[in-house]
Amino acid sequence: MSTLIERITGGDPTAVARAISRVEDGASGAAELMKQVFPRAGKALVIGITGAPGAGKSTIVDKLAAHYRTKGERVGIIAVDPSSPFSGGAILGDRIRMQTLSLDKGVFIRSMATRGNLGGLARGTVDAVAILDAAGYEKILVETVGVGQDEVEIVKTADVCVVVLVPGMGDDVQTLKAGIMEIGDVLVLNKADREGVLRAEKELQALLTLAVREDEWQPAIVKTVATENKGIDDLASAIEHNREFQRSRPELSERRRAIARWRILELLREQLVSEALNGNGAVAKLDRLANEVASKQRDPYSAVEELMKTEVGSQKSEVSNNT
Amino acid sequence: MSTLIERITGGDPTAVARAISRVEDGASGAAELMKQVFPRAGKALVIGITGAPGAGKSTIVDKLAAHYRTKGERVGIIAVDPSSPFSGGAILGDRIRMQTLSLDKGVFIRSMATRGNLGGLARGTVDAVAILDAAGYEKILVETVGVGQDEVEIVKTADVCVVVLVPGMGDDVQTLKAGIMEIGDVLVLNKADREGVLRAEKELQALLTLAVREDEWQPAIVKTVATENKGIDDLASAIEHNREFQRSRPELSERRRAIARWRILELLREQLVSEALNGNGAVAKLDRLANEVASKQRDPYSAVEELMKTEVGSQKSEVSNNT
Lengths: 323, 323
Prior knowledge:
Two copies of one chain form a homodimer. By secondary structure, the first copy, chain A, is α/β, with parallel strands linked by helices. The first copy, chain A, is built from 13 helices and seven strands. At the A-B interface, helix 3, helix 7, helix 8, helix 11 and helix 12 of A face helix 3, helix 7, helix 8, helix 11 and helix 12 of B.
């Protein structure tokens, strides 16, 4: 019988799905599995796709996936869906892709959402990408629903970041754009058959001339009408150009270093909290403290002090048991 | 000379600004300060305002603040701005309010952004709200730029959550709407002079009839044209109605409990990580490990193992020093 890692590297979708569930749930053995996965990953091109709601990200992801499929490449799609941190439920619209692409065995689609209070969405997504990579998917598309900080962080871990905009969005988009300049390697003006596309393009170009990137890459602006499959080839070329550009400069960029630092810290955070709540009665204590904070009998700071007290106590006794 | 907490409760804006900077930076003494602040907070009405980019949130916040000012109430405004977790820079568009409201001494405006990798935006925002509350600001408006998970979590800690929508947004908005049903106590259809407002209103009503809220509150739909100050009185009334409704049901809701739990965990996470990186040479080690992960010589999981090893080591020696 093959081990899970063997089945993953063999490209077995069932094994991939099981591995992703395991890391998503933070199941025991997940860390060991990922230590086997990482050395086997690194060949795929990971493309992050973000942008304002309504900009047409899903359609672009679908069409881009279809484009890669015509070239015979296997495609992994990870949709990062915002979900309530309180209910823990994922919100996934029934997308068109679910009907068309999901019948294609060369496409693996997975929706990722936060599980509970312990976070780990970012870590889970990065792990899922590595699993798909180890399983030999040539192109991995990571799509986010929102434009929040979490989503931006996740997209930035991709090799190439695509930001989708539409002409004629509101004033707040100015604010967004400023942030987008920092992350977008390729900028897509979707719904380019709409009025105002030339103005939007000029605005973007003006913003681009203002922005100075550490790596000196000049982000491309690609116009698409994704619903009609227009501009998708151009988008694929722009993505490829960015990748070639990156390959031509093998030195570690500050951005890669910052991403690695952030990944380590995310994982550290998750493991420390899970350790802290692992002790005898810690979860019950957390529930009691949460009730006290909710009813304003106690402030959160002293609640944490109380929680940390338990932890230090249990660690001390562990140490004395060992000696 | 008065202490900082005395100056805060005396309503001194300089003291408020200093206290917020202190908690934002996670400066030493911040936890002690907050333990003094929390018992003095709880009188203000905290209003969270979120919604898609371009929906007009900033304008609504400005007009609502002006509305409360005409009633002689002091208003605190906290703008939660998405910023890069890598550069750490805040993105704040030069908003109109900065020119008009900032001259009014009864209005305190503050922009909050993430500082570095250690997170703490959510915790910092909640702390800033408590400080303004203790300083006697009657209304506190918390506005988010994005609609990401972080922002949604922050807005949910408010007493009343306002979600701003505009007619005629794209398909992804369906996805957003589903999430919004869960958090919105008051739904605003802004730019209600636009085409499609009636259809949008009907859609929202249909969605509302599908949603079942634990607390049985029926979210109000308010139509506004914020730029023309239309509908702002209605919005203020709807917010007031929700508050009265909440007061009529004094029992702790599951939502309040979940929020308290989340606040404790956020704080715990921050303190554990900052402790873990407090040890001798831990930051240098993190940098070295980040380089190794960035250049794919090491996977993040074994990097964290390596980091945690340091920490446990230093704790053990501390314990043995104490005995």
